[in-house]
What we know:
This protein has helices spanning about 45-50, 70-80, 95-100, 110-120, 135-145, 165-180, 190-195, 215-220, 260-270, 285-295, and strands at about 5-15, 15-25, 30-35, 60-65, 65, 80, 150-155, 180-185, 200-205, 205-215, 220-225, 240-250, 250-255, 275-280, 295-300, 305-310. The chain is an alpha+beta fold. The chain is elongated and about 70 Å long.
Amino acid sequence: MNPVFHFDKVTKRFGAQVALDEFTLAGEPGSVIALLGENGAGKTTAIRILLGLLEPDEGAAQVYGLDSRTMGQEIRRRVGYVPDRPVLYDWMTVSEAGWFVAGFYDATYIGRYMDLIARYDLPVDKKIKSLSKGMRAKVSLALAMAHHPDLLVLDEPTSGLDPMVRRQFLESMVDVAAEGRTVILSSHQIAEVERVADVVAILKRGKLQLVAKLEDLKREVVELTISLAEESHPLPDIPATILSRMKVDRQWRLLVRNADPDWITHWQTDKSLPAVDVRTPSLEEFFLGYMRNGSEERVGERGSGRVEDKTNSPVS
């Protein structure tokens, strides 16, 4: 199955700053890909390159097999895109905005647009300039979705929406994916993204730290809280991928991936360890822990460690 979009070792610099560093990522039909990262991580740069709004210094990006460098206009016509700062004509009414954009699409566009603004409870005759930030965001969403695109690219799409509408919109992305369409969702609302994402991609300072299916992360990642008998006692060898670690007095808190359940049982029955607690972290906790550590460290052979490079791992 051919990917809907593909970044291939894309690098972008702005002067001395590296905004993207050999960024590689692919997305398959019928999936919601969450692009997560702190401000300045490179998320918006990646989106703009994919849509042909910005040229990479190295590497290539494609959508539907179309090269983003040369076919950006055609890509943007076929993709639904909501930027982090949507540009709307303030003098138009909500209805007029739809009729204006409908000229670029087929006759079904305006009907879908009117259905969407009714669903979002938008006043059709009110001018854009008089709308609240949340209402303007809803107009942008309706404009992007009305031509029923196979790929939706959403850069902080729910900014300014009230919690109920934000939840309804994000959950509607599940329905979009169920129709075989693909969604790229860049968002700071990590707790809400967790309800809808199929694949999680984490960026840090332009470098892709991890790409994984969310269901795999939920199955493979646990938080271990290990209490030591004495603060000076060493942490036991852990044959797992350590995502982050933090020590406070006699207690270690670790995010680990692919820990052997038999080892966990062994630690819990080890009389030299006062307590070993295990729980499944949320995506937000996983993200914060991963950002704190920034790499995956494998520990299991007498304290020796190695870093696993996951920066070029596309997930289909």
